[in-house]
């Protein structure tokens, strides 16, 4: 356990958990780990070398076609895949992890009230009505408009000037990768290039970078560990994730949870709700979660490819199983459902 665990840097997650237990009941209130937890099988996601898409020279037409087919197949069968030779330098990701650790070691009050990174700090789950809905984590969910400094809305990085520079580099590299992957996924369904503007309405002013930390967790659930992040699907087109060596990411494959084995140097990509809708359900936005570690903190970085709120999501081909809706409508409905029912309903709300 890190030396600063339990210090003034830590969010009051245990207080929040025990308050929910007292108020609503349920959960393991003794803090003991559950020895009878159901084991979860570990899996290796499809690994795809995307160097022919990201390198300056590229590859042959045959290599590119094979790569595009593999990406589309993984999006259909898993909703998740891993990429290597992705163009995001390993040294840059290492620097991001170091800066991330420095950021989260700041006192909790500084993180929560000092307005850092566009006042984007989050911890726990304010809407939780039971211990099962609590996410044991903290994060900065940063609009890229602030990271880039464009439009006069530059982020407040405080004294963390190195974090500012590294975050900008990571955001630019992940943005380039996400755009490339989104276009080839669209191409696989359209049978032609999707164009440089796909997905419509997505640019550095509309996307997000999320810096996550999952502190060590002394409490558990009956299925073996507290939620670092509760089960959910992503409400974007595409997510690019860099996770550390600790593990904890699990996804639904078939009717069971499987744990994703961390692979050094690889990035994880998953389909979001908007791409599932655009693809007429060919690509799958799969439910996933993070399980905490009892002794070790976990860090991850996630890039979310999102359009502007007024962007219509559209479809690859008519007829679509979904009515026309904008990203703003989708987000509003998700927030409304979470507030009303405690959970996200998502795409079923927009079926024709």
From TrEMBL:
InterPro entries documented for this protein: DIOX_N, IPNS-like_FE2OG_OXY, IPNS-like_sf, Iron_ascorbate_oxido_reductase, Oxoglu/Fe-dep_dioxygenase_dom
UniProt key word Lyase: no
Reaction it catalyzes: gibberellin A1 + 2-oxoglutarate + O2 = gibberellin A8 + succinate + CO2
GO terms for MF: gibberellin 2-beta-dioxygenase activity; metal ion binding
EC number: 1.14.11.13
Named cofactor requirement(s): L-ascorbate
Keywords: Dioxygenase, Iron, Metal-binding, Oxidoreductase
Enzyme class name: oxidoreductase
Keyword Iron listed: yes
Ranges for domain Fe2OG dioxygenase: 203-307
Biological process (GO), any one: gibberellin metabolic process
Family: Belongs to the iron/ascorbate-dependent oxidoreductase family. GA2OX subfamily.
Protein name: gibberellin 2beta-dioxygenase
Native source species: Dichanthelium oligosanthes
Phylogenetic placement of the source organism: Eukaryota, Viridiplantae, Streptophyta, Embryophyta, Tracheophyta
């Amino acid at each position: 356990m890190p030396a600063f665990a339990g210090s003034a840097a830590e969010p009051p997650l245990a207080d929040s958990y025990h308050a929910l237990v007292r108020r609503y009941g349920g959960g393991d209130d003794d803090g003991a780990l559950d020895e009878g937890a159901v084991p979860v099988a570990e899996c290796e996601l499809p690994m795809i070398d995307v160097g022919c898409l990201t390198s300056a020279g590229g590859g042959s037409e045959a290599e590119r076609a094979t790569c595009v087919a593999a990406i589309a197949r993984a999006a259909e069968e898993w909703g998740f895949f891993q990429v290597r030779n992705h163009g995001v330098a390993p040294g840059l990701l290492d620097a991001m992890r170091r800066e991330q650790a420095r950021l989260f070691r700041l006192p909790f009050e500084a993180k929560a009230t000092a307005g850092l990174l566009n006042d984007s700090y989050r911890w726990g789950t304010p809407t939780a009505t039971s211990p099962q809905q609590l996410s044991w984590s903290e994060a900065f969910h940063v609009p890229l408009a602030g990271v880039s400094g464009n439009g006069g809305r530059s982020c407040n990085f405080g004294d963390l000037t190195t974090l500012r520079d590294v975050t900008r580099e990571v955001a630019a590299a992940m943005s380039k990768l996400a755009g490339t992957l989104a276009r080839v996924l669209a191409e696989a369904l359209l049978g032609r290039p999707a164009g440089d503007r796909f997905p419509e309405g997505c640019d550095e002013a509309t996307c997000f970078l999320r810096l996550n930390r999952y502190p060590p967790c002394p409490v558990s659930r009956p299925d073996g560990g507290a939620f670092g992040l509760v089960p959910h699907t992503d409400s974007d087109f595409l997510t690019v994730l860099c996770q550390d060596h600790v593990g904890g990411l699990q996804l639904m494959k078939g009717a069971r949870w499987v744990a994703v084995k961390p692979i050094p140097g690889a990035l994880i990509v998953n389909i979001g709700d908007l791409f599932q809708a655009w693809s007429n359900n060919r690509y799958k936005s799969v439910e996933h979660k993070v399980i905490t570690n009892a002794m070790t903190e976990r860090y991850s970085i996630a890039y979310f490819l999102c359009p502007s709120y007024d962007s219509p999501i559209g479809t690859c081909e008519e007829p679509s199983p979904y009515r026309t809706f904008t990203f703003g409508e989708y987000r509003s409905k998700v927030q409304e459902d979470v507030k009303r029912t405690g959970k996200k309903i998502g795409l079923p709300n927009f079926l024709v």
